[in-house]
Amino acid sequence: MARTRRYKRMEKDAVFSIGKFLRKGFSKLGHFFSIAFKVFDRKLTIMVVPHSQSKPISFQTNVIALVFGIILVVGMAASFFYFNKKTLGASAEISRLQNENRKTLASLDELRDQNSDLMQTAKRFQSSLSQSLSLLGINQSSEASRSSMQSSDLSSLFDTNDLVSGTARESADIQQLISYLEGAIQPIEQIGKMLESQGALFSEIPSIWPLKNGIGHISMEFGQNKHPITGQWYIHKGLDFSTWRSGDPVVSTADGQVVTVAFDTSFGNYVIVKHKHGIYTRYAHLNSFRVKKGEYVEQGQVIGTVGNTGITTGPHLHYEVHIGSDVVDPAKYINVKQK
After folding, report:
1. Cβ contact 321:303 at 8 Å
2. Is the pLDDT of residue 272 over 80?
3. In terms of Cα–Cα distance, which of 253, 264, 266 is closest to 321?
4. 279 neighbors 323 (Cβ within 8 angstroms)
5. 88 — alpha (psi -120 to 50), left (phi > 0) or beta?
6. pLDDT at site 199
7. Regarding beta strands 268-274 and 256-264, do their DSSP bridges make them parallel or antiparallel, or are they unpaired?
8. How do residues 24-57 score in pLDDT, each as one tens digit?
9. How far apart are CA 331 and CA 327, in angstroms?
């Protein structure tokens, strides 16, 4: 019971102390605001004295109004500088964007010019490709070719509706060109296959110069000639190639198999190569051999060197082409140039 009274007394003392502290604090705060109000409410007289003899201008205000006016003026000045800076920044950004826009327009004009040049080149390509395919006998009227070429024919590319303009026109042109090029892949592949087969055919017939790197000159042609030793007229059964020296490499003029590597009193050291289609080639008066009998050789492979063996008046290569049992003019099979 005594303890309860003691707790109540302590509680009353605490409440009294807090109330006393709050009253004292509010009293000081009220006193502060009272002094501040008196200070800010103090009257001020502002006088403007002109340099001329005009009457001075005076007006009264208080500290609060003066402080508020100063704050207002400073705020307006700060706002002016802030928005002015923003305006200058926006003007600079607009100028930069305008410059970029001019550059973009210039680039667009250049791209349009290039696109126009591309269209003209594509048109010439179409004409050349059509002529080449016609000369090669490649049929473009098959169902597969027709379906691809109808959707990609450049004629439709150059008949584009005139109502299409601007970037839409360039885009339509490029799409048409892409379609045409996709359609042209098949005939070009056919040309490649044809050239590949023809390349294999050319490598199977004696179609190149028999001296490596095309050196030398023809010193005696095929047919009726005067014999350089006897002086009598006779039929020369090949072509003589001369470099005025021995040791220059002799090459096989076509793919084939070496069937003879031998010496003859007339031909001297000679090699005979058997090719496809019943064709044989003979290389005579050699200084040395680079192949053996039974060896397979490729077109352009060195098989020996120019020499002066057999009946000769100087180092040279005697070259013959046989088809079956007939001797033919080698000049009909190679694009020879007299040097």
Report:
1. no
2. yes
3. 253
4. yes
5. alpha
6. 62
7. antiparallel
8. 887 887 777 677 666 666 676 777 777 766 777 7
9. 12
Residue 313 CA to residue 229 CA, distance in Å, equals 7
Which is nearest to 296 in space by CA: 257, 269, 325? 257
What's the number of CA atoms in the CB half-sphere (13 Å) around residue 4?
A: 1
How do residues 238-256 score in pLDDT, each as one tens digit?
A: 999 999 999 999 999 999 9
DSSP 3-23: HHHHHHHHHHHHHHHHHHHHH
The token pair that represents 66 in the structure block: 């003066």
Q: Which residues contact 203 (CB under 8 A, 6 or more apart)?
A: 254, 255, 298, 299
Q: What is the chain's percent helix, strand, coil content, to nearest 5?
A: 50, 25, 25
Q: Which two tokens stand for residue 179?
A: 């379609």
CA distance 304 to 55: 129
| 225 touches 236 (CB < 8 A) | yes
Rounded to 5 degrees, φ, ψ at 284 are: -120, 170
Token look-up 């058997």 returns 274
Q: Using alpha carbons only, how large is the chain's radius of gyration in Å?
A: 54
Q: What are phi and psi of 109, to 5 degrees?
A: -60, -40
Nearest to 318 by CA among 226, 250, 247, 245: 250
Mean pLDDT of 89-100: 88
CA distance 200 to 202: 5
Give per-residue pLDDT as tens, 193-228. Answer: 776 666 666 788 898 999 999 899 999 999 888 888
Q: What is the DSSP letter of 56?
A: P
Residue recorded with tokens 């069937």: 259
The tokens 């030793």 sit on which residue? 229
pLDDT band for position 140 (50/70/90)?
A: low
Give the whole-angstrom CA distance, residue 198 versus residue 202.
Answer: 6
